[in-house]
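Escalated from tier 1: zinc ion holo job.
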Amino acid sequence: MSKTLSDLGWSSHFAAQHAVNPTCTPHRINAVHRDRLIGLNALGDTSDLTPDRSTGEFAVGDWILADDQNRIRHLLERKSLLQRRAAGTGAQVQLIAANVDVLYIVSSCNADFNLARLERYLALAHQAGCYPVVVLTKADSCPDPENYASQASSLVRFLTVLTVNALEASEIDPILSWCPAGQTAALVGSSGVGKTTLANAMTGQAGTTAGIREDDARGRHTTTHRALHPMRNGGWLIDTPGMRALRLMDAQNGVDEVFSDLLELAARCRFSDCQHQAEPGCAVQEAIANGVIEPDRLARWHKLRREDQRNSETLAQSRARDKAFGKMVRSVMHDKKSRSRH
Ligand SMILES: Nc1nc2c(ncn2[C@@H]2O[C@H](COP(=O)(O)OP(=O)(O)OP(=O)(O)O)[C@@H](O)[C@H]2O)c(=O)[nH]1
Ligand SMILES: [Zn+2]
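Tier 2 regenerated the structure:
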């Protein structure tokens, strides 16, 4: 199948950056390994790319420019970036996916449905720079899916909310239409809500999320996880293992965006540092008293801000700790040196 760059997600944003280095060839990153990257080019061919810096600085979905030896020369500025704190290692940031246009936030019309969880994912989408689309699955096994949909819609003005039976093929097209040809999507949501079912239906392939076996240079079988999957409508679905455990981090702006109604009210509080608890002249409490705002929503805002602050603070604190440790090591070395001189 012949492809063009725009089929792969290329746009004027990247073309402008390519114009500065016209002799290099654009590739889109399809897999990130410890020592090399796999890219897709305009013809749909994959190539092994040699990075010019640590591969941890690249994400699946990135656009890079390579020379004729497939050595990476430039990493193009991203349109969006999903990242998370690396598991177990304290404060290391791990890049999950870049240049994702649409983030499908998947929940289901049952006990998984939770407004706080949706708000958390919405904040994440806004922070990363992706357009959020809420997909509520299992509408077929629920007597009143519209009730779930209207609760979700009430969270953010003009929020797109779709209810589906993910097992019914004819219900997938309306979901796909939010990520047309040449655009890139990703799915987030808790375990069991139907992400795999949706991914398979959107790509028309079973096992979208499984690794692909291939021979490496020495003829050994290796399992490579290719993360960019073509969807039936010409869009792309990015699926990376890290996507399943995304947490909020450094997402103050994203949280503010999701709670912009409260933020607008807060601007009218008498005290600029109002905590919206019991202060006199609090416009938020007044809106609650007038039934304009649900008290639960204020509580969820406080909680999400605290959660983001906690995660982000730990990041700053742990950097400070690393610094202090470095200082300590240096001073011990210094002591040792001065002792050995005596
Ligand atoms: N009735 C009905 N069942 C669904 C729907 N969507 C998913 N399921 C079923 O729900 C179960 C879980 O779906 P999965 O697609 O495996 O969920 P997942 O989000 O990928 O789960 P993890 O892999 O654990 O993250 C499967 O048995 C699906 O067949 C739906 O819209 N309606
Ligand atoms: Zn207030």
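The longest helix spans residues 295-341.
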